[in-house]
Specification:
Elements: H1 13-17, E1 36-37, E2 46-51, H2 53-56, H3 66-77, E3 82-87, H4 93-107, E4 111-114, H5 118-123, H6 127-142, E5 149-153, H7 163-180, E6 183-185, H8 208-232
Parallel strand pairs: 2-3, 2-4, 4-5, 5-6
Antiparallel strand pairs: 1-3
Helix pairs in contact: 3-8, 4-6, 6-7
């Protein structure tokens, strides 16, 4: 898996091209931009996806990014949820934390999915700092009443940062999931990252087919969580 995630620090310049940290996503209900609600009735429970360019659908229409694929899977499965894509290109875990209060207050989600860490790894940010940010996002969500179901996407670090960094980076996600009661989704780009035909020319961001496969990876873990949530309501 680590070899497949062949991002390097030489690609950090793409972070600027991808937009950098932006703290105010566009309003829910808009058809484009982070924070956009996908096609589903507003009265349905909300799945809020806080993420990076991998969630925003960088280089593509958000309509084909993996959260949109998730919405279609939910609709086909008869699971009445409304997915809100709050992906922001170039964002680190610190940026995700800065947006969390505003997003939670606006959406009051039934389920919170957090996809972050990829840009932390590209920038070589200390894993302990990333861990504190991710934990703080989850703690804020757990403080809501009712608290949403929590889902954390595991990420992989660029291998060129060394074995120690890679090991510490990888351990963050499992540790935070255990501590906060979040469901951990294994690396959702497994089988996509590092495959030229499934990524745009930058080698980082999935193609339309890559997003479909990434959604399939995530769905294997998400489906039972979402079905259980519906059964509790």
């Amino acid at each position: 898996m680590q070899a497949k995630y062949s991002l390097t620090l030489g690609l950090v310049s793409l972070l600027t091209a991808c937009g950098g940290d932006r703290e105010k996503p566009s309003a829910a209900g808009e058809s484009r931009g982070p924070g956009a609600a996908l096609e589903s009735p507003a009265e349905h429970p909300t799945i809020l996806v806080i993420g990076t360019s991998l969630t925003a659908g960088y280089g593509l229409s958000p309509d084909v990014a993996w959260p949109a694929v998730l919405q279609r899977k939910l609709d086909s499965a008869g699971l009445e949820y409304r997915v809100v894509n709050a992906g922001v290109s170039g964002e680190t875990s610190a940026g995700a934390l800065r947006r969390t209060d505003w997003l939670l207050e606006r959406e009051r989600p039934a389920v919170l999915i957090l996809e972050t860490g990829g840009n932390d790894g590209l920038r070589g940010i200390e894993p302990d700092s990333m861990r504190a940010n991710i934990r703080a996002v989850m703690d804020k969500a757990n403080g809501l009443s009712p608290a949403p179901a929590l889902v954390l996407f595991a990420m992989e670090a660029p291998p060129n940062l060394g074995d120690d960094y890679t090991t510490r980076f990888r351990s963050v996600f499992g540790e935070v999931a255990r501590e906060t009661g979040a469901t951990l989704v294994p690396f959702f780009l497994d089988g996509v990252a590092g495959v030229d035909s499934l990524n745009l020319p930058d080698g980082i961001h999935p193609t339309r087919r890559g997003h479909e496969l990434a959604a399939e990876n995530a769905w294997r873990t998400l489906e039972p969580v979402l079905r259980a949530r519906v059964a509790q309501e």
